[in-house]
Amino acid sequence: MNLITEDWHAGAVVEASWVRAEAASFPRHTHDEYVLGTNLTGVEHIWLDGRSLEAPAGSITLYNPNAMQASQFSPQGVEYISLHLAPHAIDRVVRDNNLAGNTFEQGVFHHAALHQAILDFARTPTGQRAEHEEAFIGLLCQWMQPGPGKSGEQHASVQRCMAYLRDCLGEKIDLQALAAVAGLSKYHFVRCFKKQTGLGPLQYQMQLRLLEARKRLRRQQHSLEIVSELGFYDQSHFINAFRKVMGVTPHAYAQAFKTKARG
């Protein structure tokens, strides 16, 4: 059995692992948590409470607490992300956000937005706590309320928060504070904000920071000052975020405008 688990991290609510398995299998076993996962490559053959299922790449798997499950991975190898979610925490989210009628049917299914949300959560560094929390709430929104929702839901609250974020580019704001500005729970706040803007609130603030950073780089402001004044975690965080959007490093971007000024 060749099984490699990477990027494992644990918390009171969720344990996450990114797994690569080749010619491997898990015998029948059970968990006392929800186990939510997505396959990235390969095919997983599953036995779940008496049913035989197949999970190809891109599919979602969900096992409810105390379900009996076994897995056999294809010889070509499988790569997947697995999240173990504490039932008491999920129950609290359901209760606090009036989702009591929701049920979670276990098995294999396809849900592109949830697949992407799980991937985004797994890729968000745990050291960036606010962003990590936002990615997790976004994941829960896709899992628990996959429907389109109402157009313009909580529009005024979202607009108020967008203005607040524009005025606080240098502050490290947590989701609880933003939700308080909106007058919503964190769960509904993230859900409504993303439906209206296409981004989570902290992702939106990052775009505003990067727009301001571009202006300052064009004025040849030193990148260390930009990091300090615009609320980036450190120089590496700024470089990676900037390059992801612009395709070049902040230094290369600033040098291009420096060259133009000389010309």
Write the layout of secondary structure elements.
Elements (H helix, E strand, L loop, with lengths): L1 E9 L3 E9 L2 E6 L3 E8 L2 E5 L2 E5 L4 E4 L4 E6 L4 E8 L1 H10 L10 E3 L2 H12 L5 H16 L10 H12 L8 H8 L3 H12 L3 H18 L4 H7 L5 H12 L3 H13 L1
Antiparallel strand pairs: 1-2, 2-9, 3-8, 4-7, 4-9, 5-6, 5-8, 7-10
Helix pairs in contact: 2-3, 3-6, 4-5, 4-7, 5-6
- pLDDT averaged over residues: 87
- Poorly predicted ranges: none
Beta percentage is 15-25%
Shape: globular
CATH class category name of the largest domain: Mainly Beta
Q: Kindly give the count of domains.
A: 3
* Helix-strand category: alpha+beta
CATH architecture verdict of the largest domain: Sandwich
Question: Helical element count?
Answer: 10
Polypeptide structure, described:
- By secondary structure, the protein is of the alpha+beta class.
- The protein folds into 3 domains: 2-123, Jelly Rolls, CATH 2.60.120.10; 144-204, Homeodomain-like (Arc Repressor Mutant, subunit A); 208-262, Arc Repressor Mutant, subunit A, CATH 1.10.10.
- The chain has helices spanning 87-96, 112-123, 129-144, 155-166, 175-182, 186-197, 201-218, 223-229, 235-246, 250-262; strands at 2-10, 14-22, 25-30, 34-41, 44-48, 51-55, 60-63, 68-73, 78-85, 107-109.
- A 6-stranded antiparallel sheet has the order 1-2-9-4-7-10. The chain has a 4-stranded antiparallel sheet with strand order 3-8-5-6, with no helix packed on it.
- Helix 2 (112-123) runs antiparallel to helix 3, helix 3 packs across helix 6 and helix 4 (155-166) crosses helix 5.
- The radius of gyration is 21 Å and the shape is globular.
- The model has no long low-confidence stretch (mean pLDDT 87).
